[in-house]
Amino acid sequence: MKSPVHRCRDVEHGRAQTGAGSNCLQPEQRIPISRDVITSSSFSAMWFIRDTCGIVCAIITWLLVFYAEFVVLFVMLVPSKNLTYSIVNGTLFNTLSFLALASHLRAMCTDPGAVPKGNATKEYIESLQLKPGQVVYKCPKCCSIKPDRAHHCSVCKRCIRKMDHHCPWVNNCVGENNQKYFVLFTMYIALISLHSLVMVVFHFLYCFEDDWTKCSSFSPPATVILLILLCFEGLLFLIFTSVMFGTQVHSICTDETGIEQLKKEERRWAKKTKWMNLRAVFGHHFSLLWLSPFSTPDHGKAETYQYVV
């Protein structure tokens, strides 16, 4: 059995910063860790990371979706002579785009599972019932009680439960509380990318067979440029988001985050079936709500995080 000091990652490096007068908990102290202790008080509040790079990437994401909307509607669907074709594809594309942007907003503005900052103080520990045989992890960077499978994010400046990675495109970490929304975001972006590519192909075939001046409200050169740019954007994001969607689903099914796979961390948590792992992320009952970014899944609030030596 490994010793507590060996298992306390990111702890032994912080000893030099913890002097005799510091309020931060020493790594060797042991306490039971309930979910109430490690749940951020900002979970119900608005969450937003003030990172310049992330904000710029998030704005670019929305602008690219709006560009695709513009080309699909005003270059391909509105000039189309087939009303049914325009209504069906317009409704489908706008619905998927709305769900993609809603998922992006939820992934960006949802607390990913941040641990309360600076709660690893002696005063706070004294208010808890101490039990021998259990060890607490302390993050030396944010002085917080660090549950297992949590990692410190240098951008968010917080410890995040089940942190997979920090994604600048959603300007947030992908963690325990917002992984569902990130998966939905990648899925819907991949779907609208594929849909736009299919419509571009059909529109090119239609324009080749008919007069270029009649197949679009724009001039033929402008139409070609707009369609080529949309084709490039759709192909690029179809590949990127499809790969991200696949890696996220694989990570969920194996119950191993991207950081844990990268660091090849030893598995110390109970192994569950793939179906149980999917239910833990998307919700406890399979339904269409799994595909809704407006449905908040239950991540098992009664769960207790304990660290037995």
UniProtKB/TrEMBL annotation:
Record bears the keyword Chloroplast:
no
List where in the cell it is found. Answer: Membrane
What PROSITE patterns does the entry give? DHHC (PS50216)
EC number assigned by the record: 2.3.1.225
Topology class, membrane: Multi-pass membrane protein
Ranges where the record places region Disordered: 1-24
Q: Which reaction does it catalyse?
A: L-cysteinyl-[protein] + hexadecanoyl-CoA = S-hexadecanoyl-L-cysteinyl-[protein] + CoA
What InterPro entries does the record tag this protein with? Palmitoyltrfase_DHHC (IPR001594), PFA4/ZDH16/20/ERF2-like (IPR039859)
Palmitoyltransferase DHHC domain mapped to chain residues: 138-264
Keyword Transferase set for record: yes
Residues spanning the membrane: 53-77, 83-102, 181-206, 218-240
Its domain comment says: The DHHC domain is required for palmitoyltransferase activity.
Its family remark reads: Belongs to the DHHC palmitoyltransferase family.
Instruction: Return the protein name.
Output: Palmitoyltransferase
Q: What is the lineage of its organism?
A: Eukaryota, Metazoa, Chordata, Craniata, Vertebrata
Q: Tell me the gene name.
A: ZDHHC3_2
